[in-house]
């Protein structure tokens, strides 16, 4: 279902609050319009010979009216701005919830800078719509409307019409600039996204940049993006300034007409001096709201463009989601059956997996080995339902994986991915990464099994040591093991290690797997690895090549067979032996 325009929806949901804010602001506007009348009376009295008491009385009225107008204006402002903050909070929450529901594939296609730009800049613009957009629209509408009525009703209808003549030009101008400002705003947002992505990539890849002496080319790319950002902003600024300047010029023409023709009317005696003063004070009061109208139109246009962009994200249907009638299954035990699984990535002709059959009994271990790109990660991703497998091709404990609620499925799997993402919080919290949290005892036990306990207790803060963004203060191997501890603490029915031990040497990998034996007991374990020595104890080993299983069996039977597995194993052990004798292992 398509979502409604975000601001409109917020307006409808908070109708009464907006009305109340508008009433407060309108009272302030009406009070402000009393001041020209007071000044008009003052001018008339001056001509007739004013007394000190009259001066004092008018001054007092101006102070009282000014004070009340300011009181209602600031109260209305506080009220309406609070609504705008609510709008900002609401959209940010919806956006984050939507992002959480989208598959990792979605994020693979997005630049981080663009996502950041949506989360920060776009939402700021929506807040501006709620703040200045609403506030200035109400103020401009009431002030302009009532001021014009007062000018026509109390001073001179002909002069009012004459002075207002240039204003339709402002409407035309707003119409003419509408598309241009909208288009340029989009370009500015894109330029900001590009710049943010560039900085993010530079920071994330700083070691590669330095290692390949790419500082200068990277600086050139940054300069180009920075220049583009400047240019797009200047163009937008030009449109805005041009628009504002012409708006002011139009208002200036109104002034000219008022002074010339108003002056003539005073000379002819058609209106009094007081009326002339009041008329020009009204006109002065019109200048700010009319000028603001330009800004408001600009904000509303930018808001419209952002609204469309944000709704485009909010309307994205997650490719992987629970079916409507999905029900929790009884306890997950971890018996996995894969039946004739063939899988194509969206838009790909070549099958990433081709007719895969597997039977992994509950509590047993399966190792998936094969060359780069042979389909190991794809198989694991489908088991976690990061993509949808064809119906009936993956069955866990007798249930088609498509009929198991995603939450239950993923809670039953302890997944250790290739990339070890750690969050910028303490090591303990990285391990206890679960809504309910875990006690210290659990955290320490998981760290021990993952062979990282000794490293952690050496840090000054032990488990309370804070990690920088992406866990930069830990070595690759330590990060991997913290990530393993995070999977183990869940005590899941199924453990999946997707080439997760590649950052440690062969000996450490074996030691970790040896240490994990206790944790693996009673759990179905799936390990993908390039290093065959590490997985040789698995109950079942499958060798993949170009999306197909080309060999299967246990280590001994595969070695006897003398195929791809045996030759790779022999090559690898020979290499490791050489490295060992050279002191590398
Ligand atoms: N998101 C994707 N979209 C399209 N094709 C993909 C995607 N991910 C992987 N592939 C392709 O699917 C095939 C299998 O990839 P997969 O990542 O499963 O291999 P792998 O055996 O895990 O490789 P590695 O050992 O390098 O991790 C490859 O040809 C790869 O290019």
Automatic annotation (TrEMBL):
Topology with respect to the bilayer: Multi-pass membrane protein
SUPFAM superfamilies reported in the protein's UniProt record: ABC transporter transmembrane region, P-loop containing nucleoside triphosphate hydrolases
Keywords: ATP-binding, Cell membrane, Membrane, Nucleotide-binding, Transmembrane, Transmembrane helix, Transport
Subcellular location: Cell membrane
Residue spans crossing the bilayer: 52-72, 129-151, 157-175, 242-267
Pfam families to which the protein is assigned, alphabetical: ABC_membrane, ABC_tran
Single GO term (MF): ABC-type oligopeptide transporter activity
GO cellular component: plasma membrane
Domain ABC transmembrane type-1: 19-302
Domain called ABC transporter: residue spans: 336-571
InterPro entries listed in its UniProt record: AAA+_ATPase (IPR003593), ABC1_TM_dom (IPR011527), ABC1_TM_sf (IPR036640), ABC_transporter-like_ATP-bd (IPR003439), ABC_transporter-like_CS (IPR017871), P-loop_NTPase (IPR027417), Type_1_exporter (IPR039421)
Protein name: ABC transporter
Gene source species: Paenibacillus agaridevorans
Species classification: Bacteria, Bacillati, Bacillota, Bacilli, Bacillales
């Amino acid at each position: 279902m398509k979502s409604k325009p975000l601001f409109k929806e917020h307006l409808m949901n908070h109708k009464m609050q907006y009305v109340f804010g508008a009433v407060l602001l309108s009272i302030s506007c009406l009070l402000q319009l009393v001041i020209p009348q007071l000044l008009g009376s003052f001018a008339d009295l001056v001509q007739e010979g004013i007394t000190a008491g009259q001066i004092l009385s008018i001054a007092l009225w101006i102070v009282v009216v000014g004070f009340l107008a300011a009181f209602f204006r600031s109260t209305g402002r506080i009220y309406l701005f609070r609504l705008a903050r609510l709008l900002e909070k609401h959209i940010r929450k919806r956006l984050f919830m939507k992002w959480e529901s989208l598959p990792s594939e979605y994020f693979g296609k997005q630049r981080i800078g663009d996502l950041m730009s949506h989360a920060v800049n776009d939402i700021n613009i929506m807040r501006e719509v709620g703040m200045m957009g609403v506030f200035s629209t109400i103020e401009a509408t009431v002030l302009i409307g009532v001021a014009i009525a007062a000018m026509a009703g109390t001073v001179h209808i002909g002069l009012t019409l004459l002075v207002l003549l240039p204003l339709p030009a402002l409407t035309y101008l707003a119409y003419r600039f509408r598309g241009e400002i909208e288009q340029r705003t989009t370009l500015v947002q894109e330029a900001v996204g590009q710049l943010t992505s560039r900085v993010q990539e530079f920071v994330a890849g700083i070691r590669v940049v330095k290692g390949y002496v790419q500082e200068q080319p990277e600086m050139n790319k940054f300069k180009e993006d920075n220049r583009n950002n400047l240019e797009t902003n200047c163009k937008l600024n030009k449109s805005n300034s041009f628009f504002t300047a012409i708006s002011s010029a139009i208002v200036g023409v109104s002034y000219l007409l008022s002074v010339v023709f108003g002056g003539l009317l005073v000379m002819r005696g058609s209106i009094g001096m007081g009326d002339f003063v009041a008329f020009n004070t009204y006109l002065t009061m019109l200048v700010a709201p009319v000028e603001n109208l330009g800004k408001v139109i600009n904000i509303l246009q930018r808001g419209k463009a952002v609204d469309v962009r944000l709704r485009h994200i909010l309307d994205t249907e997650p490719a992987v989601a629970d079916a409507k009638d999905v029900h929790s299954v009884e306890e997950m035990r971890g018996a996995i059956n894969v039946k004739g699984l063939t899988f194509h990535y969206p838009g790909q002709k070549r099958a990433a997996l081709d007719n895969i059959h597997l039977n992994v009994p509950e509590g047993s271990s399966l190792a998936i080995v094969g060359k780069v790109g042979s389909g190991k990660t794809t198989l694991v991703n489908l088991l976690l339902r990061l993509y949808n497998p064809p119906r009936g091709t993956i069955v866990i404990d007798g249930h088609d994986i498509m009929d198991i609620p995603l939450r239950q499925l993923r809670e039953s799997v302890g997944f250790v991915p290739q990339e070890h993402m750690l969050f910028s919080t303490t090591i303990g919290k990285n391990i206890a990464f679960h809504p309910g949290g875990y006690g210290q005892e659990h955290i320490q036990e998981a760290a021990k099994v993952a062979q990282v306990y000794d490293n952690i207790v050496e840090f000054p803060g032990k488990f309370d040591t804070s990690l920088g963004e992406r866990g930069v203060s830990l070595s690759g191997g330590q990060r991997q093991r913290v990530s393993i501890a995070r999977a183990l603490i869940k005590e899941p029915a199924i453990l999946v290690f997707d080439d997760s031990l590649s950052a440690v040497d062969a000996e450490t990998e074996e030691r970790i797997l040896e240490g994990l034996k206790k944790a693996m007991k009673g759990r179905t374990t799936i390990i993908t690895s390039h290093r065959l020595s590490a997985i040789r104890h698995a109950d079942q080993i499958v060798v993949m090549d170009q999306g197909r299983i080309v060999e299967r069996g246990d280590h001994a039977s595969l070695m006897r067979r003398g195929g791809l597995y045996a030759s790779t194993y022999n090559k690898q052990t020979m290499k490791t032996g050489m490295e060992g004798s050279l002191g590398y292992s």
